[in-house]
Amino acid sequence: MQTVVERAQLVGGDDALVLDAPFNPMPLRRVLAKMGFSSTANKVGEGHWRVSCRRDGLGHIEGRLTDEDCQGLPDVGAPVHPAADGVHIDVRGMTAPRPMLAILRLCAALGEGIDIIVHHDRDPIYLYPELAELGWDVEPLEGEPGEVRLRLRQGGDR
After folding, report:
1. Last residue of a domain, one of 21, 41, 62
2. Does 77 lie in the same domain as 41?
3. How many CB atoms within 10 Å of residue 101?
4. 57 and 87 inside one domain
5. Cβ atoms 117, 72 nearer than 8 A
6. CB atoms within 10 A of CB 77
7. What percent of the chain has pLDDT over 70?
8. pLDDT band at 3; cut points 50, 70, 90
């Protein structure tokens, strides 16, 4: 990872950095995002990912996450699965404070650059101030009947 970070420091605003890797290198992509690189990852073949990075100052991470990406996450106390729009966490049916704790653990584990989609059965009003204090924005989404679905995004300027 150090070699890639050193190379990335040499990349100018109009240049791109393209990486080929045997997996989707999410930890590296998060480091590059903090350096101002947006990245897109595509699975080219079995055991072959191509990651395109450009220094745009936004640090946005795009590309489909895999189950493999989520395997490195700690157990947050609720089901978590990757999807094209981010990492989903389902806290429906859980009693308080377990949903809030699970969501906050996932926020801490993922950090910047990856959206979190929350599936809840009630409006988590006590969660909002906690997320705001940590720098996470909340956007309500259309969900299933009886579901409160939210997109959590850190930084708000992406």
Report:
1. 62
2. no
3. 16
4. no
5. no
6. 16
7. 89
8. confident
